[in-house]
């Protein structure tokens, strides 16, 4: 039978692995933006009219930019890379969650910071409100597994301090 500490460590590990995978997947989607938009363009009828217009506008902007200024796509390559690098930071709490709880806290702060960025930069860059809300959903969804980890790490820490000789 597993001890309470082993159960907590297992839960923490599963949530951190989920978060790492989600962060990497979210990041690597920045590489093939034009290809993904081309697929969306072939299935526009699946989307509401407002989103059809937005996707069409974005696709033509990305396509034109990539055709004329391909070096600008290097910025989204770095965006993808940053997601991968940030994901590697979560190896620390995967190995020692109590000592590396700060990484979980950092991730939670980053998730919260998505909101002001979306709501400040969004209007400046003429991003529709519904798209700003989609961007915010990444912060909202991201903070859930991190908070679960944080709560379980605090329980683990408490358990470890009460079992010290």
Describe the structure.
The chain has 165 residues and is mainly alpha-helical. It has one domain (4-160). Helices cover 81% and strands 0% of the residues. The protein is built from seven helices and no strands. It has helices spanning 4-28, 33-42, 49-68, 74-89, 91-95, 101-124, 129-162. The longest helix is centred in the C-terminal third of the chain and has 34 residues, at 129-162. The mean pLDDT is 96.
**Count of DSSP-assigned helices:** 7
Q: What's the oligomerization state?
A: single chain
SSE run: HHHHHHH
Helical content class = over 70%
Low-confidence stretches: none
Index terms:
81% helix; 165 residues; 7 helices; 0% strand
Topology:
Elements: H1 4-28, H2 33-42, H3 49-68, H4 74-89, H5 91-95, H6 101-124, H7 129-162
Helix pairs in contact: 1-4, 1-7, 2-3, 6-7
Short description:
The protein is mainly alpha-helical. It has seven helices and no strands. The chain is elongated and about 65 Å long.
């Amino acid at each position: 039978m597993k001890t309470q500490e082993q159960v907590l460590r297992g839960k923490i590990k599963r949530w951190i692995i989920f978060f790492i995978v989600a962060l990497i997947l979210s990041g690597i989607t920045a590489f093939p933006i034009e290809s993904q938009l081309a697929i969306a363009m072939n299935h526009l009828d699946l989307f509401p009219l407002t989103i059809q217009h937005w996707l069409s506008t974005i696709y033509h902007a990305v396509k034109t930019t990539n055709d004329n200024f391909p070096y600008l796509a290097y910025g989204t390559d770095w965006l993808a890379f940053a997601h991968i690098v940030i994901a590697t930071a979560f190896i620390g709490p995967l190995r020692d969650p109590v000592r590396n709880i700060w990484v979980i806290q950092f991730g939670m702060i980053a998730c919260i910071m998505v909101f002001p960025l979306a709501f400040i930069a969004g209007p400046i860059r003429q991003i529709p409100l519904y798209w700003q809300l989609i961007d915010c959903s990444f912060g909202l969804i991201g903070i859930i597994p991190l908070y679960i980890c944080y709560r379980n790490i605090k329980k683990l820490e408490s358990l470890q301090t009460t079992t010290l000789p």
